[in-house]
Each structure stands twice: as structure tokens, then as C-alpha cells.
Amino acid sequence: MNILLNGEPRELPSGATLADAIALLDPAPPFAAAVNRDFVPRSAYAGRALQAGDEVEVIRPVTGG
Q1: Distances, alpha carbon 4 to alpha carbons 18, 36, 44, 62, in Å
Q2: Model confidence over 30-44: pLDDT tens digits?
Q3: Which CATH homologous superfamily contains domain 2-59?
Q4: Residue ranges of the domains in the chain?
Q5: According to the model, what pLDDT value does residue 30 have?
Q6: pLDDT score for 63
Q7: Which helix (H) or strand (E) holds 25?
């Protein structure tokens, strides 16, 4: 299935989860993830199934002034 991962098209196998998509990026903590602009708690990454066309964003928090 095709998804957008941080704005880039990616191909994932059917049944892939948010955890699978995050693994492609291998981000250093801390980071947050959203699917179709909905925040997903870290505890739900492995259980959040993705669908074709989903938009996944993995972002790092920004601090400072």
C-alpha cells in the first residue's frame, strides 16, 4: 500500500502499522507521530493499522524562544 511519510510517498506491505512506518525513518527520541493529522500516543504505535493513502508525520518537538 502507498502512504505519505513526512510528505514522501512510501510503499508498505498490507497490514503495516504506524510502528512499521516509524521504523523506516529510525528517528532519535524524542519525537511524536500523527496519522492524518491525528496525534497517536506512543503506546498505540504498534496497534495503529495504516490504510492506503494515509498521511503519517513523525516530528521532533521544537524548544526555545
Answers
A1: 12, 10, 19, 22
A2: 999 999 999 999 999
A3: Beta-grasp domain (3.10.20.30)
A4: 2-59
A5: 95
A6: 80
A7: helix 18-25
Indicate whether this model's pTM tops 0.85: yes
Give the alpha-carbon dihedral of 40, 57, 55, 16, to 10 degrees: -60
Can you read off the three cell numbers belonging to residue 38?
491525528
- Determine the Cα–Cα distance for residues 21 and 6; give it in Å rounded to an integer: 10
User: What's the confidence (pLDDT) of residue 65?
Assistant: 67
* Residue type, position 60, single letter: R
Dump pLDDT digits (tens) for 44-65.
999 999 999 999 999 998 887 6
The one-character DSSP state at 16 is: -
DSSP letter at 30 equals S
Q: What are the cell numbers at 28?
A: 532519535
Please state, in angstroms and rounded to a whole number, the distance separating the CA atoms of residues 53 and 65. Answer: 35
